[in-house]
């Protein structure tokens, strides 16, 4: 008889433990805190005409992948949103002793009404996950619901680089409710608001609160392009001046060489009085024969000379050579009327460039940086 009682007692204890466990586990089911007539698509009741207030806070973990080409950046952060859900029925047995809140799994959030927030200027928004999504729902005794999640978002930012490298980029994050208007749901910052990881450091940026990126070193755009264009203009101007001077110097050397070759070489000769010849004295100039006719009837009077030129076959006349020589020399050199010294064009250009180029560059620098600093101060 005793052996028949033990099996019955054993099965009774197993049933009792299962019953206690089921009562213990049923606290995690949504229907424990949600009434039967609960509709998650309807917002919590509020005063007539007043929106449901949702407090929002962001803890910035990291800011990276700042892309000036696509004008966006990535933010890793924790978000927390809190509101009051007066329709909840919270039994006392779901709270541990001494606690005023209980944390439920993220699946419970799907059965609750939520304000449905989203980042208006985000390109991608995802909740981080490893084995499961990093999110949780916390219920408080005063019927307050707090939803927290670890997420990352790629935020678009209309960056302006006109004042680079002295530019300051202010990148706001707009948060709105996708399903409700401002008359139904209103977002406001909690006391914490936006906080930033104190260990967060960016090499090219300073971070302020709220997210304010002050660029200290980065990419060449706009104002930097203006500076680079100015510097390159002076470089190419110096190169062009060098080419011009080199060409003029070459032309000057060629003209000088031709001038030396065309100087008359006078050789006195005595000619016979043949037909077609001239007097008794003549000179060879390379391009022809220049004769002086001597008046033999007046031995006491100075000889009257009448130059007669007999050009060599195929050679230009002396008049044409002189005109061509003067025109060539005047292009690259001339004689100073005051000093009587020869002035060469390429040398004058080189001397002038040594003064004009540094003066213009100094003027460019003195105008560029003050204007840039004044605009930066005005924009900040």
UniProtKB/TrEMBL annotation:
<dbReference type="InterPro" id="IPR006202">
    <property type="entry name" value="Neur_chan_lig-bd"/>
</dbReference>
<dbReference type="InterPro" id="IPR006028">
    <property type="entry name" value="GABAA/Glycine_rcpt"/>
</dbReference>
<feature type="transmembrane region" description="Helical">
    <location>
        <begin position="355"/>
        <end position="374"/>
    </location>
</feature>
<dbReference type="InterPro" id="IPR006201">
    <property type="entry name" value="Neur_channel"/>
</dbReference>
<keyword id="KW-0813">Transport</keyword>
<feature type="domain" description="Neurotransmitter-gated ion-channel ligand-binding">
    <location>
        <begin position="34"/>
        <end position="218"/>
    </location>
</feature>
<feature type="transmembrane region" description="Helical">
    <location>
        <begin position="226"/>
        <end position="248"/>
    </location>
</feature>
<dbReference type="InterPro" id="IPR036719">
    <property type="entry name" value="Neuro-gated_channel_TM_sf"/>
</dbReference>
<keyword id="KW-0406">Ion transport</keyword>
<keyword id="KW-0812">Transmembrane</keyword>
<keyword id="KW-1003">Cell membrane</keyword>
<dbReference type="InterPro" id="IPR036734">
    <property type="entry name" value="Neur_chan_lig-bd_sf"/>
</dbReference>
<dbReference type="GO" id="GO:0005886">
    <property type="term" value="C:plasma membrane"/>
</dbReference>
<dbReference type="InterPro" id="IPR038050">
    <property type="entry name" value="Neuro_actylchol_rec"/>
</dbReference>
<dbReference type="GO" id="GO:0005230">
    <property type="term" value="F:extracellular ligand-gated monoatomic ion channel activity"/>
</dbReference>
<protein>
    <submittedName>
        <fullName>Jg7578 protein</fullName>
    </submittedName>
</protein>
<keyword id="KW-1133">Transmembrane helix</keyword>
<keyword id="KW-0407">Ion channel</keyword>
<comment type="similarity">
    <text>Belongs to the ligand-gated ion channel (TC 1.A.9) family.</text>
</comment>
<feature type="signal peptide">
    <location>
        <begin position="1"/>
        <end position="22"/>
    </location>
</feature>
<dbReference type="InterPro" id="IPR018000">
    <property type="entry name" value="Neurotransmitter_ion_chnl_CS"/>
</dbReference>
<dbReference type="GO" id="GO:0004888">
    <property type="term" value="F:transmembrane signaling receptor activity"/>
</dbReference>
<keyword id="KW-0472">Membrane</keyword>
<keyword id="KW-0732">Signal</keyword>
<dbReference type="Pfam" id="PF02931">
    <property type="entry name" value="Neur_chan_LBD"/>
</dbReference>
